[in-house]
Amino acid sequence: xxxxxxxxxxxxxxxxxxxxxxxxxxxxxxxxxxxxxxxxxxxxxxxxxxxxxxxxxxxxxxxxxxxxxxxxxxxxxxxxxxxxxxxxxxxxxxxxxxxxxxxxxxxxxxxxxxxxxxxxxxxxxxxxxxxxxxxxxxxxxxxxxxxxxxxxxxxxxxxxxxxxxxxxxxxxxxxxxxxxxxxxxxxxxxxxxxxxxxxxxxxxxxxxxxxxxxxxxxxxxxxxxxxxxxxxxxxxxxxxxxxxxxxxxxxxxxxxxxxxxxxxxxxxxxxxxxxxxxxxxxxxxxxxxxxxxxxxxxxxxxxxxxxxxxxxxxxxxxxxxxxxxxxxxxxxxxxxxxxxxxxx
Amino acid sequence: xxxxxxxxxxxxxxxxxxxxxxxxxxxxxxxxxxxxxxxxxxxxxxxxxxxxxxxxxxxxxxxxxxxxxxxxxxxxxxxxxxxxxxxxxxxxxxxxxxxxxxxxxxxxxxxxxxxxxxxxxxxxxxxxxxxxxxxxxxxxxxxxxxxxxxxxxxxxxxxxxxxxxxxxxxxxxxxxxxxxxxxxxxxxxxxxxxxxxxxxxxxxxxxxxxxxxxxxxxxxxxxxxxxxxxxxxxxxxxxxxxxxxxxxxxxxxxxxxxxxxxxxxxxxxxxxxxxxxxxxxxxxxxxxxxxxxxxxxxxxxxxxxxxxxxxxxxxxxxxxxxxxxxxxxxxxxxxxxxxxxxxx
Lengths: 344, 344
Known about the structure:
2 copies of one chain form a homodimer. The first copy, chain A, is α+β, with helices and mostly antiparallel strands. Chain A has helices spanning 135-155, 190-206, 258-279, 318-323, 332-341; strands at residues 17-20, 27-30, 68-72, 81-85, 109-112, 116-121, 160-167, 179-185, 221-224, 228-231, 242-246, 284-289, 306-311, 326-328.
């Protein structure tokens, strides 16, 4: 027995199960046979300490970056957060937007790669990670996302905005300096269509928003704050996946106000700290699932934004590629219990 | 200029584009800005030479494996292929099957983890990979898949079967000895539902099977054989993704006969050799997309099986996680040209 697992409780002995969730309508296979103790889940790719000597995201090296969109506070060399263009954008703001309705086309379809791909530098200092920041500073980063999403919506040429963070090379980060990304997309992405259609089906049947309904299962609850709660979702696709959900029904992330952003900042920081501690500083992604820009009023009752955090603990292999089902080695009620008990 | 790229043609200078395919209805972002030469695509995780001293899949060590289902040829110690149970199955054959129709349930749903999870050991000899085998021997492996799929169908308790191969640790292989896997699943997986619904939509509109229609674009063609062709699909989610497609309309992989299996064996071997040569022996997956077991006769005209090969060249990161869209750094017409020209 390793020292880290001394006195550690075994996970309950559970039988394999297949579950479908109420948000994406995905089937997930829970197959706990191989793992028995919480400490069996440790990242094999913990993030190394990085070398800041060549980092253009560091304060004082702004001229080496792609153009700046805005900074906080504005017009000062002592910025705390900067939003800049991505030097290697996946979508390009200099192309023409596709025609309206092209994302509804049946059959093979191609449109220009118009869109926006921005980077949010979350801190001027290289060794600092997002979860090192004070809760209020994490809240400020969230408010920067809100501001940029509102700007992109105002353009009128985009259908969806994806806010996401890749932390660690294995999670897709090409820069070690703490940052996140915002992509404005001219079509409605497949995951968004699927999510809204699954949530509509449940709303039509039950009259309930399936995200509002997530707070009913106390076994899955990890922590909560004034306006948000963090859960391990019932059909988590990934081991130790966490969703942070606004208590109050809200379709659009960009409606987040200052006091809720500060509150969410604290809960997000706590969840990232808990994952880092429990899983040995794993690479991770977080993504914000929100409503498309042109959400019809009839969809508002079942559209509810949330933030999903996914530690990178395994590999997408042939089974997942073929079926779209994931195999998860830990039940969410066990992951929730482990994460409830670990200190932030 | 590195020696490997000496005299190498640059890839054409293309502008970012977003494409939707006709099989999965997925949007893919083509963003070629960062890569300019075919040799820029080399695996950073080539498969190491493995150590066979502790391998239970090697001939003579059969007693260390989970129970055998069948071997080829039957009842001989000098087998060439064995089908065995997975020692750590994700689904368990000893549980009760879920009730019929449970996969149609709306809302949160859980069923037992009933199912089958088998391993096909493709060769008795550790250093041999699938693409080292003679075309006929690859064909024999395909016929073993067919036989096992027919057995699983005959049980009557499964909805779908996923045949897949993980090659290399980064692609999810936990054993280095060449093998593939077959999972019998008691629900219809989400990718299968999405694929059939997308293909139905196109069939209803055009009267055509969208997989039959794939052979019309010569720019995407890589190679072909008597009964099959290999293409880089129009909206490839992954760099150098390949689909091998039966020319003749056919819903079910398990209808593959002996002569077609031999023919497919040759083309599959050629494609794996080309990927290994062009991309520096990358980890890869292949998966067989086929019809669910209980396919209604009305779906037969637009259901068409094919084999998808995906080299692991990048990471699934926040954007893909959030949107279900992939970012591909090489256009399929360029990947097809490169793969047409590389020797097998």
